[in-house]
């Protein structure tokens, strides 16, 4: 299970949590193209929509207080926290928030899977004892307790399976690397950057969904480009 998940993450650059929730229905078996919902960005859009809805309700209550000449109520609704305001909403006010959340943008991401991974996924699907559509279902874990549970595996479960391999790699191959469940995503980004040539960092940034290549540079722990250039220039002067 762990190897298959890491292979998919390394090829696609998807977050571990998104791969954990990967479903067979996301795959076009003829083309090998897979499309997922990106949980982190979708949840962020829903959170923004929730905040917008709460602020609309806040403004409505402030307007009502202002029209009634109730300055104390106006000041109260102006300063009350979002959590407090949300806790005391009427059904009509909740409907405003729910409607905005329902309209929040769902972030999708599409990637091409290699034929080898498609073949392994077909074989994996045929071996499934539970038809829950999840590629990495908790029911597939070699544990009597887990086999009775619903839902996908977690990032922590995958890390437990990979921890021994990562520890061995750190001790015997490269003790400077700090590998984790997120390493596959970083490997995918680094490979994309290398293949992209001069535009590699920009392409990797686009793949990861970063707003700025500088964020990607920090994420990949590449150091400061300005610092590297300054060091090269200094050495040229010394020469």
UniProtKB/TrEMBL annotation:
Record-linked Gene3D superfamilies: Intergrase catalytic core
Protein name, UniProt field: Site-specific recombinase XerC
GO terms (BP aspect): DNA integration; DNA recombination
SUPFAM superfamilies: DNA breaking-rejoining enzymes
Domain Tyr recombinase: 1-235
Highest taxon, organism lineage: Bacteria
Signal sequence interval, chain numbering: none
GO terms for MF: DNA binding
InterPro entries for this protein: DNA_brk_join_enz (IPR011010), Integrase-like_cat_sf (IPR013762), Integrase_catalytic (IPR002104)
Keywords from the UniProt entry: DNA recombination
């Amino acid at each position: 299970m762990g190897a298959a998940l890491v292979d998919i993450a390394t090829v696609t650059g998807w977050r571990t949590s998104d791969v954990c929730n990967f479903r067979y229905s996301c795959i076009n078996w003829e083309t090998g193209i897979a499309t997922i919902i990106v949980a982190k960005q979708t949840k962020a859009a829903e959170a923004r929509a929730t905040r917008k809805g709460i602020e609309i309700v806040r403004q409505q209550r402030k307007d009502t207080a202002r029209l009634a000449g109730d300055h104390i109520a106006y000041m109260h609704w102006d300063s009350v926290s979002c959590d407090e305001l949300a806790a005391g909403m009427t059904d009509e006010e909740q409907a405003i928030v729910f409607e905005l959340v329902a309209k929040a943008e769902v972030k999708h991401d599409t990637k091409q899977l290699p034929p080898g991974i498609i073949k392994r996924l077909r074989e994996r699907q045929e071996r499934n004892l539970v038809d829950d559509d999840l590629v990495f279902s908790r029911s597939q874990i070699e544990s009597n307790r887990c086999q009775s549970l619903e839902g996908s595996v977690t990032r922590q479960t995958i890390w437990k399976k990979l921890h021994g391999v990562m520890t061995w790699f750190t001790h015997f191959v490269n003790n400077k690397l700090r590998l984790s469940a997120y390493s596959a995503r970083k490997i995918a980004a680094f490979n994309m950057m290398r293949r992209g040539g001069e535009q590699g960092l920009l392409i990797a940034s686009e793949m990861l969904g970063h707003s700025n290549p500088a964020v990607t540079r920090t994420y990949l722990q590449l150091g400061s480009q300005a610092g590297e250039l300054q060091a090269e220039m200094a050495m040229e002067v010394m020469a």
